[in-house]
Design brief:
There is one protein chain. The chain has 307 residues and is an alpha/beta fold. It is 32% helix and 15% strand. Strands 3-4-5-6 form a four-stranded mixed beta sheet, covered by helices on one side. It starts with a strand and ends with a strand.
Length: 307
């Protein structure tokens, strides 16, 4: 039987996650990059929050235009997209003009870009609509090693970390659980081949150590699983993270780090935390008897690492 592996970034990473629970017999390893595993929590509404207007709408427009052009349809919808929302040609999911973001109600977008966007807006809460595509609910059905690549500024950071941790604990076999790998870099949502030290993260410069040649890691990964070549990749620690500030790569044995120190922060104000110029603030001191102070949810604590 021929053996195969998969790799790809963003949508092509998400399809790898979705493929894995079906367990095709020829699939021996995967290398997903910058991908979501729970579409409700990590794609559309992001950890239970508000609808991701800033990129869901441009993404839907991009997909609608591409589909119409492939079908040779130059009808009213395409004209509306061109005239009112975003000019063509455009880069992938380019931000919209301010007027487009003010288009209300949100369901008006669903009427324009149906049907998927309408479905998203009609299902704001997690539930059966989302569960079929939620791979985080299917870790026990996955039996292949995966090398998960994500980054601190990636919109799908949650997906990479959560999927890695879930498979380390709940994949089908002890061998599969032990053969999961995780790499977390300092870039944003991109395929980090020879990743630049700065560029897509604003003015931040992470120095020359931030550069990484991911091709080499991929080749070693697939040479081992598809060709049986001992590349030594399984002898390396399972986790590699880029430590921002000190700007170097560090190997670790687990995630979250066993030495992590969780620090609760409290939202506090005098009742006017309504803008950038309001009096809202974060504090370490817990509230006493005053009102207007809220503890950040302990369910998703921010991890601070001791070096």
């Amino acid at each position: 039987m021929a053996m195969s592996g998969t790799t790809g970034q963003s949508y092509l990473g998400a399809t790898q996650y979705l493929l894995a629970p079906s367990r095709p017999p020829h699939l021996k390893a995967a290398f997903p990059v910058s991908a979501a595993a729970d579409f409700q929590q990590c794609w559309v509404y992001h950890t239970g929050g508000a609808f991701e207007l800033g990129w869901q709408i441009p993404y839907a427009i991009f997909m609608a235009r591409d589909s119409l052009e492939r079908l040779g349809l130059k009808g009213q919808l395409l004209a509306t997209l061109e005239r009112e929302l975003i000019p063509a040609p455009t880069p992938f999911a380019q931000p919209l003009c301010e007027e487009a973001y003010r288009r209300l109600p949100l369901m008006a977008w669903g009427d324009l870009l149906r049907p998927v966007l309408t479905d998203y807006l009609n299902h704001p809460e997690d539930g059966p609509y989302w569960w079929a595509s939620n791979v985080e609910r299917q870790h026990a059905n996955i039996n292949i090693p995966m090398y998960h690549v994500t980054s601190w500024y990636d919109i799908f950071l949650h997906g990479g970390l959560t999927h890695y941790c879930g498979l380390r604990q709940h994949a089908m076999t002890p061998e599969t659980r032990a053969q999961q790998k995780l790499l977390v870099g300092p870039w944003a949502h991109r395929f980090p081949y020879t990743a630049p030290s700065s560029g897509d993260t604003g003015d931040i410069d992470f120095g020359p150590n931030a550069r990484i040649e991911l091709h080499e890691t991929q080749l070693r990964w697939f040479d081992y699983y598809l060709k049986g070549i001992d590349t030594g990749i399984l002898d390396e620690p399972p986790v590699k993270i880029f430590v921002m500030g000190e700007n170097f790569w560090r190997d670790e044995q687990e995630w979250p780090l066993a030495r992590t120190r969780y620090t609760p922060y409290y939202l506090r104000s005098q009742g006017q935390a309504n803008s950038l110029h309001g009096d809202g603030r974060l504090e370490l001191a817990p509230p006493a008897d005053e009102t207007g102070s809220v503890r950040l949810r302990p369910g998703r604590p921010r991890a601070y690492m001791r070096r």
